[in-house]
Amino acid sequence: MRRPSAGQAERRSQPRRSQRIRRGPQRHGPQRHGPQRRGPRRRAVAAAVLLAVATTACGSEGRTLNVFAAASLTEPFGELEQVFEQRHQDVDVRLNLAGSSTLGSQIAEGAPADVFASANEPVMADVAGDLGGEPHPFATNRLTIAVPPGNPAGIEGFGDLAGGGATVVVCQPQVPCGAAAGRLAKLTGTTLRPASEEQDVKDVLNKVVTREADAGLVYATDVRAAGDQVDEVGIPGAGRAANRYPIAVTARAAEPELAAEFRDLVLGEEGRRVLRKAGFGTP
Amino acid sequence: MPWVLWIPAGLALALVVLPVAGLLVRTDYARLPALLTSDAALSALRLSLVTALASTIACVVLGVPLAVVLARARGRGVRLVRAVVLLPLVLPPVVGGLALLFLLGRNGFLGYLLDVVAGVSVPFTTTAVVIAQTFVAMPFLVVSLEGALRSGGQRYELVAATLGARPWTVFRRVTVPLLLPALGSGAVLSFARALGEFGATITFAGSLEGVTRTLPLEVYAQAQADVDSAVALALLLIVVAVVVIAVARPKAFDR
Amino acid sequence: MSLHVDVAVTRGRFTLDVTFDVPAGSVLAVLGPNGSGKSTLLQCLAGLLVPDSAAVTLDGRTLTRAPGVQVPVHDRGIGLLAQDPLLLPHLTAVENVAFGPRSQGVRPSRARAQAREWLRRADAAELTGRRPAQLSGGQAQRVAIARALAGGPRALLLDEPLSALDVDAAPAIRGLLRRVLRRTQSAHSGESGDGEVVPDGERCAVLVTHDPLDVLALADDVVVLDAGRIAERGPAKEVLAAPRTAFTARIAGLNLVPGVAAADGLHAPNGRFVAGVPSGDCLPGEPAVAVFAPGAVAVHPAGAPHTGSPRNVVDARVASLEPHGAVIRLRTAGDGGAETGIAADLTPASVAELGLEPGSAVRLEVKAASVAVHPAA
């Protein structure tokens, strides 16, 4: 089941944009082969898995590694991609960044993923049959409250999301951040009264950035990435309901050793450093 | 008719029919009754029918006068206005949703005014769903009506005026009755477009069960977790659309 | 009580500049080829076009005084009967006819009764409940006539009302129009006051046409339009029979022989019988006029033997020979029943071959099939 295209286009635009900006100068770096073709190719992957299969098939001289990663991993995985490609000059890492559920569906439909990094464990469990090895937890992400700069509605804590005038936006329960919100609400005995249940954590953040919402339940990493566009109201004890991010090599991986190397980079010291910098917790 | 036409015609038909057939094949028929009668599905269906009907009525009430003005008014600005009216057809719905937010959102200039003056906030309400649907569906109605008005010309209106009918009488007793066939097909198109509307709705109105989560949004929500459920809901959406077209078709499309 | 028109309008390189009066109860024909300004004139009268400078008054009421006054279409009291009947397709015949009275505030039941009466007068009573799609061209035009009259116009504009009809239907509709438009026929319309807003005798009409036959059958007077200006004006029969300008002669020059209609022709006052084809509305014994074009007249030397089928043969003397476009128009001295003589068109070669000059004796022949016999206006 593919997502309706309209929603997809909007959600994708953000990670892709940040990637392009960050990656700009690197593209022309002398150490890479075929750099000009990478950007468009990655876009194709993001747009349609089938297209990705086609471009992979007529691939380049070097080796490629397809990494499917949750959208919240955009920043750290982009950095790790560079690290990995510097260590393996002949390898082209391609990131497919989207909602974990979407990526899970794509893998179940036969998309050419070598490594899968999910934002929660149930999605990983759903594709257990397509995995080539045990999933390893490599990061945690706790929920926090994003508010517009200056906190116009005066949100002080999780309890203020239970109604009482403020426009609150959360993720729908079907996606990991929504599931985490549900767990947190249960743990604290709070009943959330959202104005909207968004399909994606980035949509929640957008509603806060555009000031349509007074508060949004998002990941700590999202608040970190949004910079001064939002303020944060922390939730004590949110760590108890944090998401655990697992990573695994898939059964269909063309080069399982290479895929395992990337996984180990993420699990290793370099990976932990980069993840923490982006606001993740590391186990 | 040259027989060669059958080849592209067949391809065109296949392009429409085969994906739907694929959906039918993927459907989990054992779970279908349970999936379709879930509270979430029923509330999404109800909301979709109510909002699509409301936005179709809004399209007719606002679109008929607009089409008449566009078809009859003279002047240089009319061409520009016509292009603007067609904008929602080419605009990605998400962009339409953003545009609506910038107008009617809390910080939009109209939304701010409404909030301050009347204490009304539009986003995240069922009204927002209807507005988003009307925004994307209106061009379908206006385009079909304007075409009919232009091809029909003004000769009947003129004759009616020479019989002593005032402009309002002419509009009521001549223009509108002559428009009815085109109005029928235009309204069906608008309803269908409103029923399938997704991008502008989710951007402008958000997604909350029973309030703003219409069938397409529910399909999308379910697709995150339970593909079978999403497929079942998609099937429901198709059935509703087919019923609407089947009911309205004889009058609207057969001449 | 009359229609007074003084209009000047410029559209691009075309200028229309006309002045005329239509007395109450009379019909004025505006005759002209395409592009002569007929439609522009109609639009000015109907109120669709604002002239550059104009004065249009109807029964003393100013409808247009440009610049400044422009009474809207619905308030002018000017009815329109177009080439196309333009019946509203979603209404039945009787509803179409009742449209005018209804729009003017007459109660539905009374409007319907008036509509039935007008349909009856238009010989269309049996069409009452039919939809326009179920009507033939002639039937639809009958209903359209009834509708135009039911609107109670003080003046009626007729825009080529017969040109869209096929040849079988046109004579009957022409007859109907004669009946409803002609003041002389208005005597028997006083039988019922129902629907009588403007007495037939006071209503005036402007008939726009390119067909001289329509003028002959329906109009009292005619103005001939040439490129936006009036080329000639006068009583219809005089202008058509004896055009004073070459332009009028070219578009309207006809041979007319008045007399009394017969089953297969017409008896001229001088006792001569003109064989011809009576039109559908032409009753034997009624006043009529035989009409034939100059081009239908064959010219032979005097005393030439009969060539067979032509049934009308006249001996005459050439009065004049004038170039007329590519042909030479020959006109005979008054004879043959036509007061002004008969006109015939010949090629210059024929004129030379026959050695024709004013005073020459000729024998003229016209096929009966080329002669139309119409009721006289």
Structural class category of chain B: mainly alpha
Trace the largest sheet of chain A across and list its strands.
2-1-3-10-4
Instruction: Report the span from N to C terminus of chain A.
Output: 33 Å
Order of helices and strands of chain B: HHHHHHHHHHHHH
Shape of chain B: globular
Shape of chain A: elongated
**Biggest sheet record of chain B:** none
Largest interface: A-B, 27 and 33 residues
Q: How many whole angstroms does the radius of gyration of chain B measure?
A: 21 Å
Fourth-tier CATH superfamily name of the largest domain in chain A: Periplasmic binding protein-like II
Which class do the helix and strand fractions of chain A yield? Answer: alpha/beta
Uncertain segments of chain A are: 1-60
| Strand coverage percent of chain B | under 5%
How would you describe what is shown here?
The complex is a heterotrimer of chains A (283), B (255) and C (377). Chain A has two domains: 5-140 and 244-277, 3-Layer(aba) Sandwich (D-Maltodextrin-Binding Protein, domain 2); 143-241, Periplasmic binding protein-like II (D-Maltodextrin-Binding Protein, domain 2), CATH 3.40.190.10. Helix content of chain A is 43%, strand content 18%. Chain A contains eleven helices and ten strands. Chain A has helices at residues 5-27, 38-47, 49-57, 74-87, 100-108, 121-126, 176-188, 201-209, 220-226, 256-267, 269-277, and strands spanning 63-70, 91-98, 115-117, 136-141, 143-147, 168-171, 196-198, 215-219, 231-233, 243-249. In chain A, the strands form two sheets. Chain A has a five-stranded mixed sheet. In chain A, strands 7-6-8-5-9 form a five-stranded mixed sheet, sandwiched between helices. In chain A, helix 1 packs antiparallel against helix 2. The radius of gyration of chain A is 19 Å and the shape is elongated. With 255 residues, chain B is mainly α. Helix content of chain B is 79%, strand content 0%. Chain B has helices at 6-26, 32-36, 39-72, 77-85, 87-90, 93-104, 109-118, 126-152, 155-162, 167-196, 199-204, 215-223, 227-252. In chain B, helix 3 (39-72) runs parallel beside helix 8, helix 6 (93-104) crosses helix 7 and helix 9 (155-162) packs antiparallel against helix 10. The longest helix of chain B has 34 residues, at 39-72. The longest helix of chain C has 14 residues, at 108-121. Chain C has 377 residues and is of the alpha+beta class. Chain C contains nine helices and 22 strands. Chain C folds into two domains: 2-247, 3-Layer(aba) Sandwich (Rossmann fold); 254-377, RNA polymerase II/Efflux pump adaptor protein, barrel-sandwich hybrid domain (OB fold (Dihydrolipoamide Acetyltransferase, E2P)), CATH 2.40.50. Chain C is globular. Chain C has helices at 38-46, 93-103, 108-121, 137-150, 170-181, 212-218, 236-241, 246-252, 348-354, and strands spanning 2-11, 14-23, 27-31, 53-58, 61-66, 69-70, 78-81, 155-159, 204-209, 221-226, 229-235, 255-262, 265-267, 273-275, 277-278, 287-292, 297-301, 312-324, 327-332, 343-346, 361-366, 372-375. The two termini of chain C are 22 Å apart. Chains in contact: A-B, B-C. Chains A and B meet through helix 1, helix 5 and strand 7 of A and helix 6, helix 11, helix 12 and helix 13 of B.
